[in-house]
Structure formats: structure tokens, C-alpha cells
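user: can you give me the structure for this one chain? C-alpha cells are fine.
assistant: on it. calling the predictor now.
[tool input]
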Amino acid sequence: MKLYRGMAVSEGYAIGPVRYLSSQKENVPLKKTENRPKEWARFLQARMKACSHMMELYQQALSRVGEHYAGIFKIQLALLQDEDLLTRIRRCILEAGYTAESAIEKTADEYRHVFEEMDDEYLRAREADVQDVKQQVLMQLASSSTLESRRETSPAWEEPCILAADDILPSETLHIDASRVRGMILRQGSQISHAAILARSLGIPAVAGVADLPHDEDLFVIVDGFSGDILVDPPKEKVAIYADLQRQYEAERQALKQYSDVKTVTLDGTRIELMANIGHPNDLTGVLDYGADGIGLFRSEYLFMYCDQMPSEEQQTAAYGTVLQEMQGKRVIIRLLDIGADKQVPYVKMDREENPVMGRRGIRFCLEHRDILMTQLRALLRAARLGKLGILIPMVVSAEEIHTVRRLLTEAAQALQNEGIPYSGEYELGIMIETPASVMLSPELAKEVDFFSIGTNDLTQFVMAADRGNPKVGALCQAGNEAVRRMVKITVESAQKAGIWVDVCGEAAADPELTEFLLSIGVRSLSVAPPSLLVIRQTIRQIDLIRLQEIRE
């Protein structure tokens, strides 16, 4: 037996022979055209057909994996309709004289380089969407059988197998026959790649980043979607052990579905608000199906990162308004633009910093770029008419920062009123507690705001003085560390004394092993990624807070 290790991206266990899938990424040689208008017309027609095909994929995904995961194809459809993308391709064809195929290839390559240079893992993973969109348009442009013969369905293997590939595009993942494909091994990809997300939705165990797996058609493997281990040619005893683990896991997974439409209450009847984290309005699909009590964290920076230019006030108003309307009166917490450090946008020049994680990010960036902040504040006030809005200030370390934002909100409201633009002044204002400074100042800061949101990811790395993006010290970044627990407890106590509510987001909120601790110190609101909602709800419903209190006394 030989052991290979990768990154666990979809839970479960799979046992079987390996079958390889060749890469489907086409590279088109760059060519010029003598008839630029004709090439532009060809592209527009292919784009229209690709949009239609993407809607078909969306409908297939709806019936197969549900609304939450089908939203992936809505994101791709939005990319196909993006004005910046169209402008780039138009210039390539009408100004530079490239063929339609060359223009889409060149533009996709430019996007790829932008995504690859980003430190943010979420955005790097979106490069696969660009590739998928490129291939969809190329298929429509193709006049030969070369591209038209691309795989649209899963290969018809005679026996169930483990699929191995360099990477798989979202549209290709959707066509996988889950009854034939027991597991997936990817040489590339990540936890948040869309291939990984779809693998989870299809219930296919998957491991990514296994670059050294040999290309051998005779391999028989075990895929451990929890540890990321790939066991090649395991002995019979090991196969028997994993077969038992596989049966146990499937039984547990079926039992979890009962928590989709039940209340989030403890055994003693304490109501807990369980909300979802999203990064884009398209992420909303399915959030209500999981029974989320609201949106605890809408990371507005992703609206900015998807664009090649600053999103306008109208665009932002529409995006925020969509989320507020879809949540049907449930609380929606929208974080102010939080870029800097590992989150960069190509159209904003930011000076290089030696330690960007502790540099001009979050509210520091916003206050240095008042025009960007004021546009966002105006958009938020306009959208506030459509639901229950909470505005969240990131990276706060002083009361002065809160005072400044309140003053700017007042100025934005006055300007909208003077311009006769409808808006609402009904909103909650909160801050992220993600630095030791904000924790230690929490008694004073609690008097200035309506709520706290404890960002345990950043808080953990600052408390532990360990960069969570550095694998050499990543093991120190555990939210369950006693020092971090004490910081969270201090914050909750400060909120309770001031009479404001407090939410916990980040990895700690989605860790079932920390749920009991968080509830026992008074946390009554948790915000997690949508796929974690059912597990955390199940955990909460098994906790008896009265019994815990009696034990402590």
C-alpha cells in the first residue's frame, strides 16, 4: 500500500478502481481577421447561444443539486453578460483585429492572470468559471468537430470507479454520473473551487491537490474525504475498515436531512439565531431552503472583486436590495468594503506593504477612500427600504472610527434627501470584533453600536500572532485555543452588559466542537457557510443549557 496526501474537499469515503479523465481546457492559437464586423457578429451569436446553454445547465442543476448549488451557473451566466468582459472582447475584435476565437482566448487569459495573482483563495478558485465560460463560447463558435465533440456527459464506464483528473470544470462536474463515480481525485483545485462545491452537493467524496498521483489504469484506491488521504492498493483489512466507515457515514448523512425545516432551539427551549454567510447575491439560492434565520455576513468586497471597475451606486443598490428582498424581512448584515491584505481589486492602486494583514485594510482603507465609502453608504441606505439591514464595520480598533462612519451615514442620508432619492434610516450599525484591541475596548465600543460580530478567523491569528495563511504556523490558528476562547468570552460579556446582541462568524461558528462553549457563555447568534447550517442546527438541538448551568454550579 502507498499513501498520497491531498486536501479534503468533499466529505465521505470511496473505494474502487481509478479511471482518468483528460483535461478539457482548449488553448486557441491567436489569429487575426480581415473581416472584423463579421467576427464581432459571430461572437455575439455564439455568446447568445452560450447564454442559452448556461440556462439549460442551471435548470439541470436545479433539479439535480438544488438552488444553492445551481447558483454557480448563474454566476457564470452573469460573467457572460458582464459589460467589462464584452468591452475587452469588443476591443480585441474591432480594434485589434483578432478572430472571435482568439479574442475570447486572449480575454480569458488576461482574466486568468488577474485571478492567479490574487492572494484570496476564493477569487483564485473563480478562474475555473472563466475557463468554463470560455469553453462554452468556443463550443458555439466551433465550425469543426474538434470542439463540438467535447465531453458533455460522463464517460460510460462499465463499473463504478474513482475519477481522477487535473481539474474539472463546473459544467463537466454537473454531467458526472454519481451512480458510477464513487469519488474524485484532483491534481489541482481547492476547498472552495466550484468543482469541489458541486462534488459536495452531489455527495461525491473528493480530494484535491494530489499532484503526485501516478497515471496508472490499474490503480485501486481508497479516497478519504475527511483526511485527504489516498490509499493506493490497500490490503483487504483496510478495505473492510473503510467499507464500515462508509456505511456509517451514509447513515448519518441521511439522518441529517431531517434538520432542514426544524427550529434552531436547544433541548431546554432556548432559541438560537442561525444565519448564513454569503459573498454574492447569487449565493442566496438555497439559503432559505436550509432554514437560515438571516444573513449574518454578506461580504460586499466580492461585488467589487468581480468587476474591472468600481461598481456604481446603482449596481450596489440593486445587489444589496436583491439580498434584502430575498430574505423576506429576515436580518441581513452587510459588511462595508473590506479589501486590502489578501483581497485586492485591479482598479484600485494600493501601495505595497510589508505586513498587509495589519495594514490599510477594512475601515482603514474605506476612510482613506471616502468617495468609495460614501457611494457604498448611499447604496446601503437606498437598499434599506427593502428589508431589515445591518451595516457592519470591519477592522475597528477605536470608537473614533465608529463616530466617523455614523457621521458619514448622516451626510449620505442628507444628500439623498436633498436629491429626492428614496432611502431609509432604519438600520442597525455594528462592528467586527477581530482584533485584541477591539476586544479589550469592547465595554466602551458596545455603547456605540447596536451589535457585535466576532470574526473568529482574524481574531485567532491576531491573538496567536500567527498568520493563518502561512502553513508553517497554521496549526496555531485554532479558534478553540484557550486564549481565543477568553477573548470571545470577554466580548460576549461586554455586549451583554451593554444590552446589545452579539453574533459569532468564521470557522468557530461552524465547528460543532465549539458550539456548546459558545452557547454556554451567552452567544445566541451564529453565522456559518450554508453547507454547515444543518450540522450546527443538529448540534444545537442536542444541547441542554439548563443542565450545563446546573453542572457548573
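assistant: here you go. Residues 144-154 have pLDDT under 50 and may be disordered. The chain has 22 helices and 16 strands.
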